[in-house]
Give the backbone structure.
Amino acid sequence: MDNLKREYSWMGYVRKNGAMGIRNKVLVIYTVECASFVAREIVRLAGDPETEVVGFSGCTDNEYAVRLLIALIRHPNVGAVLTVGLGCEYVQPEWLADIAGKEGKEAAWMFIQQEGGTRKTIEKGLAVVGLMRERLDTKRKPMGIRDLIIGAECGGSDYTSGLAGNVVVGRFFDRLTDLGGTAIFEEIVEAIGLKEMLVGRAANERARQEIGDTYDKALEYCKSVRQYSVSPGNFAGGLSTIEEKSMGALIKSGSRPIEGVLKVGVKPPHPGLWLLDSTPDPYWMQFGITNPNDSEGLMDLAACHSHIVFLVTGRGNVVGSAVVPCIKITGNSATYRAMEEDMDFDAGPVLEGRCSQDEMAQKLLKMAAEVASGTKSKSEALGHKEYFIPYKYQDRDATKKCREA
């Protein structure tokens, strides 16, 4: 164990609050769709892969979206923040920039209406971003596996996901938590039919109650929208039912006790294995939908301060993620060969008997450490920085209102 800790170490970026990041990004945030073009142009013309854009399109308030933006501002991979608004939206860029400043990060904000329109705002934004990059805090400190938070979700699953891809991630999560690190898995709507298995792994009575309530809420949600998290692509890939998919989805959590349930935007309070709940709350069930695409799920994991996110996909995917590197894993070697420029890790050899699950998990641990130390994932190298922040209604508290509804 000590040899592993010594072998997998690198220099992380130290933030004012003591948190350590694996990247040092300037984040440009737009606070309404009307400001998205200007924000994107600032980032495009800056020409710097470590300057990124995210934003919320809505004009009216949404606590979930605001909480997610604040979490990204506070993320340890972010060193500076520029917020850009139009001038009449509900979410105020000045307020978000003030939060970044209080975190000890370089911060600035602009209203397009006050700056004089598109061209003038872009020009000023470019100047601000350039200055921010010059002033970025570059203080570094040794960092290791125990300092990592890694989140995982699956998308585009096929029959190999539950036999290889998710299995290897589960073995990886066991190693990560055994070494003192933190693992987050999500997609509770892909655990339908497995309540007893979930609550049976609760670390304590509080976690048991949280997990049970979260499962019940997810089941009611699926009933209310008349849709379960299984798709034509899953059927084409060899899966037949939501229960079959659920077994494969849950196995990516590994075998260690589940410490409790996180809501979007909440950092794990201590190391270990955590379940992320991204399902809308029942009293707002008519609004919002859980994880309408993989990019929102990855953003939810990033908002919980994951340094790296895993996307396990049997059928293949090309997306990346804003703020955090995305490592794409497949248990289907044919998919890996067909999409090798996009897929990072092939867990397929475990199905061919050429490698054990534990050996493959060790290889994945090595890759995660390399990405943490600065090696770009495939999506980073290609410039994929997808994100999605929708309207959604979800309390920060784990499960109290679910029991009351």
The domain at 9-141 is CATH 3.40.50.2300 (Rossmann fold). The chain has two domains: 9-141, 145-404. The radius of gyration is 21 Å. The first helix runs from residue 2 to 7.
